[in-house]
Design brief:
244 residues, alpha/beta, Rossmann fold, 5-stranded mixed β-barrel
Length: 244
Amino acid sequence: MNPPETVAVIAGSGLDLRALLDEIDEERAFADVPGLRDARIAGHTGKFIFGRSEGARVIVQSGRLHFYEGLDYETASAPVAALHAFGARTILLTNAAGGLLPNMRPGDLMAVDEIRCWPCARWRERPESLALDFVPEKCDWRGAYHWVHGPCYETRAEIAALRALGSTAVGMSTAPEILRARELGMRVGAISCITNNCCTPQVLTHDHVLRTAAAASARLCEVLRGVVRNGVHHGRPASGATAR
């Protein structure tokens, strides 16, 4: 009998995904893994948590590294290479994102069916978009996540441009990691936690993002459990945003 597949799950800003694990075997800080630097952004603890969920081996990557920290592509995406070295061949990325549809509410979950890339972002291949292998179920929305470099939140003009392009959510992560996973031959899927509605004028802070993400973590863990329980080898991405 083949051993159970190892699934990696990356936790975005403020998302606490420990409840996804039924058992925890080991925790390892980024800084203790050769080739990785520690995480330095609030809401990113920078550790790998090894355990089991729904009978499968699962590695939760708590926090991530970002381009906007002044890192290059290889450094920012190095945790993905570490997950691959740990044996993961499927990776499910989560992130905190701004919603680009008027009816999106803080705490909503969006299943990502396409990754789009802001054209001025600095990275080596500059792809316009990245495909995913599967789309998680039981989310509130489904649509395209648009990656921007950061670290500043988007201006009103940028939000208008993203909406005109048909994107559904915007954030500052995930795309470089998916490109790295693609290079390593890993299967990829993604879920965005909507932490604010970009259509509503507001003063947005990182603390607000972290609080909203923390409040949505329990529900996100349940959705992720369904993905692990039912397997990730089904479904395929389709374009267009829809509400469930």
